[in-house]
Design a protein that fits this description.
Layout lengths: L5 E8 L2 H12 L2 E3 L9 E3 L6 E6 L8 E5 L3 H10 L3 E10 L2 E7 L5 E7 L4
Parallel strand pairs: 1-4, 5-8
Antiparallel strand pairs: 1-5, 2-3, 3-4, 6-7, 7-8
Protein name: VOC family protein
InterPro entries: Anthracycline_SecMetBiosynth, Glyas_Bleomycin-R_OHBP_Dase, Glyoxy/Ble-like_N, VOC_core
Pfam families: Ble-like_N (PF22677)
Length: 120
């Protein structure tokens, strides 16, 4: 994927089993837990490109969130805050070669950021 591509969509849910059954039946998504990410089943659409996760709903996470791939989370956060956006969650590691963060735009829309090391 390239800078600016939507790479992942998280859907907040209250019950993982019910949500898994619902989205599998509705869209034919393949949903399963991935080793190392227990409690966060990931889904993949039939096109084998689109995907995301079913994440536990929380006070600050009540609506689906799209993640955009960026070349540099640090540079994107700096650009976003310069343009009137805000940091919702600072950059954090997913593993040794991937990171994520969450920002909001000037209207309060929340957008996830995803960065992958070039060699990954």
């Amino acid at each position: 994927m390239a800078h600016g591509d939507i790479t992942h969509i998280d859907i907040p849910v209250a019950d993982l089993a019910i949500a898994t059954a619902f989205y599998t039946r509705l869209f034919g998504w393949q949903i399963q837990e991935v080793p190392g990410f227990e409690g966060y089943p990931m889904w993949q659409a039939p096109n084998q490109i689109s995907g995301g996760g079913l994440a536990p709903r929380s006070e600050g996470f009540t609506q689906p969130r799209s993640y955009v791939e960026v070349d540099s989370i640090d540079a994107t956060i700096a650009s976003a805050t310069d343009a009137g956006g805000a940091i919702v969650m600072a950059k954090q590691p997913i593993d040794d070669a991937r990171w994520w963060a969450v920002i909001s735009d000037p209207d309060g829309n929340v957008i996830g950021l995803y960065e992958q090391a070039p060699s990954a």
